[in-house]
Write a structure and sequence with these properties.
Blueprint: H1 16-23, E1 28-29, E2 36-41, H2 48-57, E3 62-68, E4 73-78, H3 82-90, E5 97-103, E6 107-108, H4 115-143, H5 146-168, H6 173-204, H7 210-232, H8 239-268, H9 272-293
Antiparallel strand pairs: 1-6, 2-4, 2-5, 3-4
Transmembrane segments: 121-142, 148-170, 182-203, 209-231, 252-269, 275-293
Subcellular location: Membrane
GO cellular component, one term: membrane
């Protein structure tokens, strides 16, 4: 039967992702309720926070999930039509390309994990990101730096997703969704407030403190490296380890952007570099808020 058998009529085709897993020698468990396994490329999924969004989007629809953040792919074991899975992922706005779909010859074997250790790591991730949100927010307000405020919002965005993931443990999908949407609305309001602050500075001017921008951003960079270490300690080796470095590198780019902007502010004697980098990071934060609010 063909791949279309995994659509509205159920699954019954040959080959596909499951066969590929067997050919690679990967372990599979006995089939459960899932009848199909489909693999998707999610182009903008490059960090654990975005992985959490995909998990929440597919909650109640997927019987198994396997992520490869390095390749930006997710394999989904499911009984519902593949179009439903594809629609839920696409709704997040991170891109969704169906790579393969076929019969579920098995489900991914559950990895041995230490829930208490994972909860501790998640709590530390939340604490680090939340602390840097407060530090960068206060420093940005004092230094009149849009870049620092925006970088702090980027930390808040990650903290919000980790908080929702921590809150969701042992709770139903409805409560998870409510918590996620609350975080999304708060992130959206803060992002809009940032753009209001940038506009106010452009209209009335500001005396941005360049050294504060650079110093606090270096601290944020160190915090991101700490997060990478925590994530790597609870990931498999290989691709997952590399994905953790990608995650940190992406956040570090924002830190480096603020550091460079601070240097330009000091060199040019103009706050414009700060306003520009603040607007760019702010736009990224708003895009993340929209993704969260698209969860259904």
């Amino acid at each position: 039967m063909s791949e279309s058998s995994c659509s509205s009529t159920g699954c019954g085709c040959s080959g596909g992702v499951a066969a590929e897993r067997v050919s690679r020698g990967e372990a599979v468990a006995a089939p459960g309720e899932a009848r199909c396994v489909s693999r998707f490329r999610v182009g903008d999924m490059d960090c654990p926070a975005e992985e959490s969004l995909v998990r929440m989007a597919l909650d109640g629809q997927a019987h198994g999930l396997e992520f490869d953040l390095l390749e930006r792919t997710v394999s989904v074991w499911h009984a519902v039509p593949v179009e439903e899975i594809e629609s839920r992922i696409a709704r997040l706005g991170m891109g969704c390309e169906r790579l393969a779909s076929g019969p579920a010859e098995g489900a991914p074997v559950a990895k041995v994990s230490d829930p208490a250790a994972e909860r501790r790591a998640l709590s530390w991730l939340l604490a680090i990101n939340a602390a840097m949100f407060v530090i960068e927010g206060l420093a940005g307000w004092w230094a009149e730096s849009s870049g620092l405020l925006a970088d702090g919002l980027d930390m808040f965005a990650d903290a919000a997703v980790y908080a929702v993931a921590l809150y969701a443990v042992g709770r139903g999908a409805a409560l998870q969704l409510k918590a996620a949407r609350f975080a999304g609305w708060l992130q959206l309001l803060l992002g809009l407030g940032l753009f209001g602050q940038v506009a106010e500075h452009v209209l009335h001017g500001s005396t941005t403190v360049a050294l504060a921008m650079m110093g606090v951003s270096v601290l944020a960079l160190i915090a991101n490296v700490g997060c990478m270490w925590l994530i790597a300690g609870h990931r498999d080796g290989g691709a997952h380890m590399k994905a953790s470095y990608i995650f940190t590198a992406n956040d570090a780019l924002a830190n480096l952007g603020v550091i460079v902007a601070g240097g330009l502010v000091a060199w040019l004697g103009s706050p414009w570099p700060d306003w520009v980098v603040g607007s760019i990071i702010g736009a990224m934060v708003l895009a993340g808020a929209v993704r969260i609010l698209r969860l259904r």
